[in-house]
Structure formats: C-alpha cells, structure tokens
Amino acid sequence: MTLEFTLSAPTRSRVGATVFLILRLRNPSHRPVEAHFLGRTIVFDIVAARADGSIVWRRLAKGAGPSILQIRTLAPGETMEWRDGWQPREPGHYRLQGILPSDEPEPRRTPWRTLTVTP
Amino acid sequence: MSRLNPLRLIVPAALVVVAACQDTITPTAPVAARVTPSAYAPQQVQRWFDLMAREGLALRGTVLADYDETTNRVVVGVEHAAAAASVRALAARLGVPAAALVVREMEPIRFATTLRDRVDPRIGGIQIHFGNFLCSMGFNAVDGGQASFVTASHCTDKQGGVEGTVYYQPLQSVDGVSIGTEVEDPPYRRNIAGCPHGKKCRHSDASRAAYNTGINSALGQIARTDAAGPNTGSLVLNGSITLSGGDLRDHFGIGETMNKVGRTTGWTQGQVTMTCVTVNVSGTNISQICQTIVENSVQIVGAGDSGSPVYTSGNALAGVLWGGNSSGTLLVFSPLKNVEDELGPLQVTP
C-alpha cells in the first residue's frame, strides 16, 4: 500500500526570510497502513539544493541519533506532519526535498519542489 | 535449473520457492539433461503434468512438479523414497506412463530465516520488539547467575530507569510469548564528571533484560549472515559467530576495524575514526560520555540497529551500538567496558 509523502513549500521567497516547510505523510487508502520510522521522536530530513544538484542546506547535516525503529499504523485518511524552516542566504533557484529515513535501504522521499529566492 | 520452465514449475502451497531458478535446489539424483526425449506427444505430456501437479503435489513429501521440455517428461521432486513411491503409484492410477515420469529426490524448499525472524536459541544481532519499537538484541550475558541479554538503554520503555520493559522476538504478533523483561537501566544524571552543562549523561546507552523461564539463549553467540563479506545488506541468517571474549578497552585504535550485526543492515563493518568522545544525542538533552565512532563510505547502520553487538576483527565483543548519522555511514557504540562499569560485571562467553 502506497502512502503519499509530500513537501509543502512556497515557490518564491527572499534572502533572509524563513521558508516554512511542511512534510506530510498521508494514507489515501481505505485500509490502515503500517509505516516504519527512525527514532522515538520521528526523524525527518529536508535538503535544499541548487539547480546543479549541490546541496546548500541539510536539516540533519550533523549529529548522531538513536537507531531505534518506530512502527506506526496510519488510519485511513490519516496524515502525519512535520515542520521546519530554512533561511536562504543567497538568491537563486533552489530545489527542496523531504526525506523520512526508515529500515528500507532507501529512505522515503518527497518529489522535489522548486523555490526561487530573490534579493 | 534454467531448463525448467518457470511457468510450469509448481510447488506445494505449504512451501515457498526461494530463487527457484537458481541453484538452491540440490538434486540427489543425476540431472536428466542427457536423457533422450520421451516418445509421447508434448501436448499429452503437458496434460499428464497438469494431472500430476494437481494430484501429486497434494501428497506428503512432494516438493515440486515440472514439465521438462528438454526431456519431454513430467518431473516430480520429492523429499524421500516413501514420497517417491506414492508419486509413482499415483501416476499409475492416473494413467501416466512410467517412461514419461521422472521422480527425483531433493531437499525441501523453505523460507530463508533472517535476522527479523524468530530465532531459537536467542543470539546477538536478531530483532527484538517492545511497545511500538524494534531494536536489535546486543549480546547474551549472565549477571549474578541470571540469564540475560543486553541492548540499548533507549530500547526500553524509557531511556534510563527500570520500567520492566517486556520484550518479544521477533514481534509480539509472531510469537506472543515474551522472551524477557528489563531489569537494569541506570538513570541518566547531571553533574557527573565529563557531562556537558545542561545535559544528562551516562557512559553507556545500555540496559539489561532477564530472560523469562523457558526461553533458550546461546551465550557467546552472535548472528552470522550468509554474506561472504560485510556491508552487503544481507539479513539471511547462516549460523552464528562465537565470541572470543569481551574486549574491555574504552579507547580503540584509530583505523581499527569494527563489525556489527543488526536486524536492519545485517553484518556491517567500518573503521574507528574517533574514540572516547562525548556525543550529544540528536533531538535529546542526553550526552553519552566516552563513546566510539565508526565510519565507512557505505551504509553501516539503519533504523532498528540500536542495541546491535559491536565486535572486533578477532570476534571479541567490543560494545553496544546505539546510534548513527542520518545517512547511515557513521555509527556510535558504547564500549563494553562502560557497559560493565554501569551494569556490573557480565559473563559474555561460556
């Protein structure tokens, strides 16, 4: 069963202004769906990259956390949500992606969103 | 096995094909590749195959049925001679000529057991379950005559302090009999030597659970996967590693190779890059004092590996894994010395 994982972000912002980012994991089905997460407090990551792919910000760039696996069952229609903010330091075109680590070899990733930052 | 038509390979419902087109099936009789094709019409042999697949695989001790186009015969795999006799008798009743039938003895095909399955006796590195969480069993230990296992302190209902966490293996839904109960997990404290201002600290992220009566455990054994080398991602269990003893250093050599086995990333290996460092635990107000960091360029830790045993290239138990970075290329473990300083002396080998 597929869960919908999306990143909500503005398409435009200014240098120094906080870009508010919201990750949502939703169960669109009519059945409960089990999902696995990293951490007792669920760990989520967000990356901001330039158009050439170089990463300019990563929420979890540093640090070590517990490698415990949390099991959660999302009820039909249930949405889980995580929020954070990022302040771009330079104007330009950026791409943003949300990431949820789990016990899969590849973490769950949102589609990329684009963001244009003006001076 | 490539000569077997996978569309025509049928196994009993109680069994599972594990890479059926690879060499996992070991025939005990010679392969019939050079047998002259039978003289019957292929369509007729196919009908006999349909009959034998439907009726024959209902017999005890049958493994698979195949229409082998190369020899134009029906092949039925069986576990033993008694099943072979039953299959031949059935074929005779169904009018399948003996010349169109090959009955071959072979090993039964089973699910491969992984680190996430029920493992008995219990050994280090396998999956454990409590509440809504999964971790890895660290290692078996005897403490004051009590058969126990050690895992991470945060793999309890509350990190630091004994709440009597009840553990299952691999999952409560798979085996509802709990294997053990948390009995030792010292509290985190402020104002201990080396503890950063505003933090609560310990020297190990480790706790001990006593096995329940009737639960088997193998002292000094760590799960071995079927991987030929580390960092392959294999979780398939292939016996166990015998620990050579406990390594009671709290400082390890930079560049020294360390191994771990855990339910998420299996057997992984990296090199010590920092030793006896104080680590702030991300997302908490906890610091772990005098920990060791191991790194590699590939993933060596993942969600659920907490509690995994860490051991040297000489198979000496070095500590308990508790954390890693977000990309999984860095793991942190508490040295066994610190674990014993906090939990008391532990017997980790027979």
Task: Describe the 3D structure.
Chain A is mainly beta and 119 residues long. Chain A has strands at residues 4-8, 12-14, 19-26, 33-38, 45-50, 55-58, 65-66, 69-74, 79-86, 92-100, 108-109, 113-118. Chain A has a single domain (4-113), classed as Intracellular proteinase inhibitor BsuPI (Immunoglobulin-like). The mean pLDDT of chain A is 95. Chain B is mainly beta and 350 residues long. In chain B, a hairpin with a 3-residue loop joins strand 16 (257-262) and strand 17. The interface between A and B is medium-sized, with 25 and 35 residues. Strand 8 of chain A pairs antiparallel with strand 6 (133-136) of chain B, so a sheet runs across the interface.
Superfamily (CATH H level) name of the largest domain in chain B: Trypsin-like serine proteases
- Give the low-confidence spans of chain B: 1-9, 11-33
Show unreliable segments of chain A.
Answer: none
How many helix segments of chain A?
0
List the helices and strands and how they pair.
The complex is a heterodimer of chains A (119) and B (350).
Chain A: E1 4-8, E2 12-14, E3 19-26, E4 33-38, E5 45-50, E6 55-58, E7 65-66, E8 69-74, E9 79-86, E10 92-100, E11 108-109, E12 113-118
Parallel strand pairs in A: 2-12
Antiparallel strand pairs in A: 1-3, 3-9, 4-8, 5-6, 5-10, 10-11, 10-12
Chain B: H1 42-56, E1 62-68, E2 73-78, H2 81-94, E3 101-105, E4 122-124, E5 127-130, E6 133-136, E7 139-143, E8 146-151, E9 166-167, E10 180-184, E11 200-202, E12 207-211, E13 217-225, E14 237-242, E15 245-246, E16 257-262, E17 266-280, E18 286-295, E19 309-312, E20 316-324, E21 330-335, H3 336-343
Parallel strand pairs in B: 2-3, 4-13, 11-18, 15-20
Antiparallel strand pairs in B: 1-2, 5-6, 7-8, 8-12, 9-10, 10-12, 13-14, 16-17, 16-19, 17-18, 18-21, 19-20, 20-21
